[in-house]
Structures are given as structure tokens and as C-alpha cells.
TrEMBL record:
Any one GO CC term of the record: cytoplasm
Keywords tagged on the record: Cytoplasm, NADP, Oxidoreductase
Gene3D superfamilies: NAD(P)-binding Rossmann-like Domain (3.40.50.720)
Superkingdom to which the source organism belongs: Eukaryota
Naturally occurring in which organism (per UniProt): Holothuria leucospilota
Name of the molecule in the record: Sepiapterin reductase
MF terms in GO: sepiapterin reductase (NADP+) activity
Cell compartments where the protein resides: Cytoplasm
A biological process term (GO) from this entry: tetrahydrobiopterin biosynthetic process
Amino acid sequence: MADTTQSFFGTPAVAIITGASKGIGRAIAIEFARRFSEGLLLVLTGRSEKDLQETASLIKADSSFLSSKMTVRCVVGDLQNQATIQNLIERLFENIDPSQYQHAILVNNAASTGDVSKYVRDFGLNDVKELQDYVFLNVNCPLILVSKFLSIFSSTIPDTSEKGPSKITIIQLSSNAALVPIKGWSMYCTGKAARAALHKIIAAEEPNVRVLSYSPGPVATDMLRYSRDNTRDPDTSRMTRNSYERSVQPIETVTVMCQVLEEDKYESGAHVSFTDIVGPPKNG
């Protein structure tokens, strides 16, 4: 059941956000910084140090932040690099004392589209490494991150009598492609469907954790531009171009996501879509 005793943004919190160097991840970081009123540790990760630092600069330059007790930490790394993933995850969680926070949040945002220029019949043995890398980033990494996150922010800190956060939330950025087959997007649809299933399982296994799969709708990001310019299937290409023309800015969909989190009426593990809440974006 939803916890109505506390505001989502009203207690000291730690929020770990992947893919925070641009787009939706950056918008989530900025909006969380604006909304949390009792202190916030933002741990941001992405591949580009320059872009991560830009996200941090935008946060620190915003005079609308409610809390002076905010810390932003940037951890540069590639979640798709299997050789360095263990070190990256350790750095994400280092020097965090769970007993200092009442709310722990993990945002599984980092993702990729995969190859949108091929039908299923076009893939072959030469594509095995590309397929493995795609699954690692889009499915395995969220699983590994959630496992590490839960091991740290459990209700009782291991080997001590100290309590961890009373509220734990896991958010994954999903897509309607998790639910609908889209020609030419076999990698993307499969990855999103697997992520949605994974987070449903997490919700079933962890009844004290709030889990949300949020589909942001068509958003003006590099990923949507890439899909618009590289999709092979003519029907999907028309759909993607139309989606881009009707796309919203990242902050618009993140604002709606924050409203969903604050209202806290969703069933844990549910797949909630921006367009289900506000309707499809109108043609510009």
C-alpha cells in the first residue's frame, strides 16, 4: 500500500541517478534538487565528465532549490563496460551512511536504443557482441544496481543495530515499447520489456520497496533523434518522425513523473505512462 504518512520529497534522502549527464536523467536530477526540502545527496553517473559537470552546474546555479543541505556527487563511468562495472558500482555507493537518510532512491535511467536499422531476420552471428552489450547495459546493469542498492539500504544496516531509510523507492525509465511490438525495433522492445518484467519481479520480492516503471512518452532527446534518423521500417519511421514532431521537453515529463511519485497512488511495480496521464502530445 502507498505510504501516505510522508511526502516523497519531504525527508532527508539519497538519490542515485544513472544516465544523468543529459536528457531525462539530467531533468530528474534538477527537479529532485528543486523539490527535496530536508536535505539531499544526489549521486549522478554518466559516461561524459563534461556533461555530468554541466548537470551539476545547472543544479547549483538554480536559485529555486529549497534545501541548503544538498550535495551533488558525480561519478563518471560506462555502465556498458563489463571490465570496469564492478569498480563503477562501488564508487557509486562509497562513503554513503544509510543511517543518515530516511529515503533512498535509485533511478535506473541509463539505456540505449540498440540497432533500429535491422529486422530480426537480419541479425546474425556477427552481431552477438553487440547484442550482448545491449542486454548488459539495458537489463543486467539495472539488476546489478538494484541488488547492490538493496543490500545497502535495507531496514537494518548489516552487522549493526542501526536502522536504514524507512522509505525505499526504485524508478526505472521505461517506454510503451515494453508493451507494444514495433517493427525494426527488436532490440529496443526486447530490452524495455525485460526491464519492465525485472522491476515487476523486484516489486513482488520486496513488498516494503516502492517500484515504478515510468514511460516518459515522446521526449526531445538524442535517443529519439537517433531513432528518427536511423529507423529502417517505413511504418515505424513515419511513427518516429511524428513522435519527434510532437515530443515534449524532458522537464515536462519529469514534472509529471514527480507528481506520480508524490501522489503515491500507483501499485508497486506498475507501468505508468506520461500519455496515459496527460493524453497524447498535440501536434505543434
